[in-house]
Amino acid sequence: MAKKPLMNLRPADLKALGIGLELSMVIGGLGYAGYWLDEKFGSDPWLLLTGVFLGISGGSWHAIKMANGGKLPDMGFDKLAKKKDKPPDRKD
């Protein structure tokens, strides 16, 4: 009986495979949409490059979010915003 290769993978491995597949599909899909629009409007290669750039940036954002359990990592921006809203201490 033949072994099923995906049956021996751990859940973390399957999650990584899913994230990689989603990333490649977003980049490929937006790249193809840009190519199609370039063909339609005759604006070679600008819409293709725009689609690929949007796919890479949006797909990377989504991959980072999914790798962290569906939330973005805390980069300390909340602390900066709170300091900015707070008026400076005045010493007279």
Helix/strand/pairing category: mainly alpha
Helix share bin: 55-70%
Supply Rg. 22 Å
In N-to-C order, the SSE pattern is HHH
Largest sheet: none
What's the pLDDT, averaged over the residues?
Answer: 84
What is the CA–CA distance across the termini?
Answer: 85 Å
Q: Helix tally?
A: 3
DSSP strand (E) fraction? under 5%
Describe this entry's structure for a reader:
- This protein is mainly alpha-helical and 92 residues long.
- It has a domain at 25-72.
- Helix content is 67%, strand content 0%.
- It has helices at residues 11-41, 46-67, 77-85.
- The model has no long low-confidence stretch (mean pLDDT 84).
How does the SSE layout of this entry go?
Elements: H1 11-41, H2 46-67, H3 77-85
Helix pairs in contact: 1-2
Features:
single chain; 92 residues; mainly alpha
TL;DR?
The protein is mainly α and 92 residues long. 67% of the residues lie in helices and 0% in strands.
